[in-house]
Amino acid sequence: MFTFIDENGYKVVLRFDQGPFEIEPRHVLALVQHQGKWLCAVHRVRGVEFPGGKQEEGETLLQAAAREVYEETQVHIKDVEWFAYYVVHTETPFCKAVFTAKVEDIEAFVGEYETAGRLWLTTDELLHHPNLSFYMRDAGMKKMLQEVNRDEERWND
């Protein structure tokens, strides 16, 4: 378990297991790497971040992860695997499930849909990008990147 305070002053608890959960996950985040680069969405307000969002009625967390990645980046993913989860202790606490995945297919990004575009960034570029969203700058994201990079063989395309 890894605990930190985010930029908004909220306690965040990050775990690399599959529960039990203090709060059931209803949000997803996807860490997708392809040819040594991370897939990021460019959110119009928040900035550069990993794709993710809210689980919709009737879908599993895995389905939500695949849908959100596609909606935000026009990238289809495969080999989606549970990686971690974190609870943000806001006034109304919420839990986000984190998945890793590989690229199945990349479609052309045509116009703006949910985001202003996609970026492919190396880990170094990601850690030092000047327009990262607030959650991409926190200690939890650095910890997740550290943990996911321990298993480099997983990312060999």
From TrEMBL:
Gene3D superfamilies: Nucleoside Triphosphate Pyrophosphohydrolase (3.90.79.10). Residues 23-145 form the Nudix hydrolase domain. InterPro entries: NUDIX_hydrolase-like_dom_sf, NUDIX_hydrolase_dom, Nudix_YtkD. It comes from the Bacteria. Pfam families: NUDIX. Belongs to the Nudix hydrolase family. This is NUDIX domain-containing protein.
